[in-house]
């Protein structure tokens, strides 16, 4: 499938969706996008900038929610214009979808909302590529029905994204079988390497995270076989306004991407022997 | 707390929220409400009629979604007028809340939407009692933050409801510890005995269910200690338009309620020895 | 089925297996057995004293393992002689089974060893009643094969016991459906209310526990429908040499047993409506 | 660490433990060992032949258990002598350990028995390298205590092996974080790619399996970073006498090993950036 001008799929080099969890300021967005563009260009990795303007499902209302839609879209437009990269943001039930669609290149739906039929179909009706996150409460094959709903409204640019599955309380687990399993939908499969290490609700009024496992899971997902990697990154995660415990430090991103690129090349050269057994 | 004219809480007799999953027709709603009123009056169980007019998160768009809001609210009003019981329905992100609030006595929020801050607060702002379902992806104590958000807008009539927790793929499990744990919020705790036996996505394009475990889990929850029981029931579950595999047959409801009533009396007479250890 | 002179089963009053996790001293065993006999006689609950002489699977070798087999069996014999109650102990792969069988009334096999065919069959060959614990890694219906192995050697006095199922890391969960499900084997089903609240490995070199949930789960299990309850108790759990965090204080046992007895009477008078649906 | 004459560890090329689940016949063992030796030599992968002579924990007693210890050890000795490869077998509580240790090069302990202190220490006392499988009911960090017990008796040649963790009923899941986590013990970490796709008890009296995910999980584990891979293989899995549904076909092994070798080279050249964050 074509995505923002590059080919994506299980037989194409992996692409990266990355950026700070939330648009904390214009400066942060521009700087991060610029550094990410420079790094991914050097490594030959197609890149989409991701950032949110409103965190609608924070654990607590005392947490930072973002700069709001007007300021958020203005900054995303600026990132496109000044840095020259495609941008992605996530939308919610009360988002003015057409307004967001007029700015961004890719829309993303949150895991919690994956079963809301009207919402998923309304987002897909905007005509942009959509990255649909699998619910933490869903099996990989449950995405078949979600993809069917998305396609029903005529959108063929659907990506599906795994960000972990509920495992006991306040813990997620990433099932690498699920990545292969979701490839059966025909949609590009994306692995979200930073939300997968979240510990939802694990710190009372905020969520915890195990940042050290981000590169481990990202490598494993690439080797399992994916079309893309999603990764939130920040120049100073310890002081980030959202998801600090699970974002990856921007200044340590290069060695992670370098090994992912090398692994992706190897695994896609060899092909996926399991395809013959999966029907 | 006062709810629809009766006292509810861990030191009060349990109340019942029951009805068919979806309003299939006026006749079904009226008949079921009538029979449930007769039965619960005889057994001395406070009763609230539940039915949905729109199933917004069906597995597949080929499934029946309901009669729509106008017809749905008309029928719920008729149930109130003719049968004389309070009514509850569930609302969603795109529900006209004030319109629904002008008819029903209790509003209910779906498990999948428990983390949507705006939505939960908007529902709670209507000034009616609200039954908030715990997400299948949440720990019991994660409801502390949800209750805090609900109370923030001034609503003190909050109930919280357990309808099962993700356990592997396509399976839910009911943690009886969680019912005791959620009592710490001070909110009446309700156990949903029919969605707890659902097998979400377990039959491909629809969800399965293990109806035979409904009375087992309902008895266990009553003995663990709850303020209320939620139970979907239908005169002919095999031909129901939604959730058939997990609804309980209306004509077999009496023995279930009778034992629940007797167990509830016993457990509440004895008191809850764990309270002293839970701080 | 007959067990130590009383009738046990889903249509009989529940029996209690209780005692301190490990035989710390003769005095502790005699005193605890005496108090438990007095209490259960008063409440009309058939009682079997349980204690271990060797904890073969402690998390760490630095933990107390027990007084050894000779001293252990001498004390169990003394409990029988002086207090006049039947006794149960758990056996392991290297236990001299005949020696233990010459003293105790009931043998118990550990959850971790449930899949060891030779072991299970050797224990069952001793001709005593056996309480087989379900593995934490097993589904309730996996016990069908275990029971088949046990019966293959001619032992018809098999009880099966649920002590929790793995749920994420370092946590167990008790599925009340499983108790009903395991009744299909025809064996008396026992619920272990204290190991079910263990947090295995949860404190590094020892296991943690959530004692406050013992009465919650015990009540729920009785209401779900069981033949017996297993519960470890100690006069001073904070200073116990094993399983302190999950044992129930002996001096707070009476209110727990009193409500269990009352609930058990109620649920067994009403019968189990689910039986008709379970085939 | 040195193992059978080669260096193993996170900074060494991965080694392979492979063979048919059970020694069905001398011919099968010799043929399979020969083909595996030829293949691994060509690919430059250090190789240890694995096969069992007694399956002590089959789901049902009607299943094939093996040829017994005398015939089993004779055949393993013949594999060593004729094929010239080191051999591994698994031992159980009632295994004559010294007898087995006199033939094999590596001993392996089953996941179910990981918490049996005497057993683990007795095996480790034989002085051979030991591959200890993590219990399906254990967290990765629970292996710290197991390794401590093993080292207590003076054995420093301990490997630890992940073969999946309980996830709901009749399903295992492989947590790639766990492989990195277990590296903290300092022991070589092995990933068992075939038992990880087992569905224990999933077919009533036998276990099921999802063979198609073997290469997916093996690639993911290599990319996460391991010292070795364990994989059961058979020339004709459909007619194998044990574990057929999860063994990998011998004639399709080459492409799997080839991609594992290439991925392992890449990931170990790049190093493990997470090490700096894991303390």
TrEMBL record, chains A, B, C, D:
Gene3D superfamilies per UniProt? Aldolase class I
Q: Which reaction does it catalyse?
A: D-arabinose 5-phosphate + phosphoenolpyruvate + H2O = 3-deoxy-alpha-D-manno-2-octulosonate-8-phosphate + phosphate
Q: Which GO terms describe its cellular component?
A: cytoplasm
Q: Which InterPro entries match?
A: Aldolase_TIM, DAHP1/KDSA, KDO8P_synthase
Which residues are in the DAHP synthetase I/KDSA domain?
8-268
Per the record, the pathway is: Bacterial outer membrane biogenesis; lipopolysaccharide biosynthesis; Carbohydrate biosynthesis; 3-deoxy-D-manno-octulosonate biosynthesis; 3-deoxy-D-manno-octulosonate from D-ribulose 5-phosphate: step 2/3
In the record, what terms sit under GO molecular function? 3-deoxy-8-phosphooctulonate synthase activity
Q: Does the keyword Transferase apply?
A: yes
Q: Which UniProt keywords are listed?
A: Cytoplasm, Lipopolysaccharide biosynthesis, Transferase
Subcellular location as annotated: Cytoplasm
> EC annotation?
2.5.1.55
- Biological process terms in GO annotation: keto-3-deoxy-D-manno-octulosonic acid biosynthetic process
The record's listing under HAMAP family reads:
KDO8P_synth
Concerning its family, UniProt says: Belongs to the KdsA family.
Record-given protein name:
2-dehydro-3-deoxyphosphooctonate aldolase
